Amino acid sequence: VGPVITIEELRLKLVALGTLGTITVGYMPASPDVIGTIYEYGGQEPQKRFGVIGIGYERPSIQVVFRGAPFDYTGPRTKAEIAWRYLAGIQPGPLGAGVTTEYLLVDPQQSPFPMNSPDELGRVKIVFNLHVMKDPS
Predict the structure, then answer these.
(1) CA–CA separation, 17 vs 11, rounded Å?
(2) Assuming Cys at both sites, which of 1, 28, 101, 108 could form a disulfide with 37, CB separation 3.0 to 4.6 Å?
(3) Are 72 and 124 in contact (CB under 8 A)?
(4) Rg of the chain, C-alpha, whole Å
């Protein structure tokens, strides 16, 4: 069994809310229009821990994107705001929602904002980024 991937763990946490709809990891398909996706990008350097050989804490960086129906700004912006506040409120300890990994920090890097212009179908993407610190999975 390989390591548990942070984006899948955070997807499970957001899906447990029951109000954000379909959320994928690593890839946003062309349909449905209304969808959320969680991506990984270059994180911060791992942190050593006294008495632990190798990586003490992982520090991945995450991007969360919500896309709406054509010409709908409010829908994806509202979902992004809900997800942003929910993830920012994670307290140190096991993540919950079926995930036992211990998260020490989920640190939003900015408020949700529009990503580029609407696409060729008029769909808006709202995005925010997070830095995370967790025990290795």
Answers:
(1) 10
(2) 28
(3) yes
(4) 16
Closest Cα partner for 97 from 1, 4, 3?
4
Q: Give strand pairing partners of 61.
A: 41, 131
Give how far Cα 24 sits from Cα of 36, 57, 100, Å.
6, 25, 20
**Residue 97: both structure tokens together:** 């929602």
Nearest CA to 60 among 25, 24, 29? 25
Q: Which residues of 114-123 are buried (b: 16+ CB within 10 A; e: fewer)?
A: ebeebeeeeb
Q: What is the mean pLDDT of residues 14-24?
A: 95
- Fill in the amino acid letter for 84: W
Model confidence, pTM: 0.90
